[in-house]
Amino acid sequence: TPGSPRPAGPEPYQWGRVGADGMVSTVGDLFRWLGAIQAGRIMAEPARHKMFTAQPRGREGFGWHVARTAWGSTVIEKGGGSAEFASEILYFPDDRLVVIWICNDLRQRWRRALNTTIPAAALGREFLMPPPVARARTDVAPLAGAYDAEAGAVYLRAGDGYLYTRRNPAAVPDDVPFLPVTRMSFSAFDPSAMETMTLRFQRTPGGTLRAEFRRGRRAVILQKRGP
Q1: Could you tell me if 176 and 184 are in contact, meaning their C-beta atoms sit under 8 angstroms apart?
Q2: Which of 56, 102, 158, 199 could make a disulfide contact with 186, Cβ separation 3.0–4.6 Å?
């Protein structure tokens, strides 16, 4: 959860994982391995062609997914991961580009955002970035606490410089950290939906702390219990 990361435990090496697990590598070694395949030093051209060519009834080659990019070129990619980590190799033969990334913190599901943003940035194309956040450290503890919304209670908790919430009846997302933009304004980015949301606080004339959560056209008003 956005609350805190946790150590990854061992996963059973059993049927369904045999042959797909058991290898530890670095980004650099994966890049060199893919370069050796491209150069024909590991397998013959017929085998490489079969591996990187989608089958007639699908978009998958021999273990690789083959598709077209938004700009019309070919992308050959393969992702991996578990409950605690994610990785991806993206090979763009028409663009002469290889992208390899690994992530060991899945408090947010970054796969879609990384798979689209990194290649677009490398090729000089338009891409979406998360909103900017405050550079100076913000004390978020005074804003944490129980809030009342029309649909029910929302509990905002203080992380290490950010706010997050647990599952709640008001449907304020519980899988994103809200990072400070200013002392009273926060933003969050959903990398799966490629969407930004905001959380803005203000004091009423009576001293009550209120917040407005906004995602697209949807808004939820929160009012803190107590001072």
Answers
A1: no
A2: 199
- Both tokens assigned to 62: 């021999």
CA distance 47 to 80: 22
pTM comes to 0.76
Tell me the pLDDT tens digit for each residue of 142-185.
999 999 999 999 999 999 899 999 899 999 999 899 999 999 99
| Three state DSSP letters for 58-72 | CCECCCCEEEECCCC
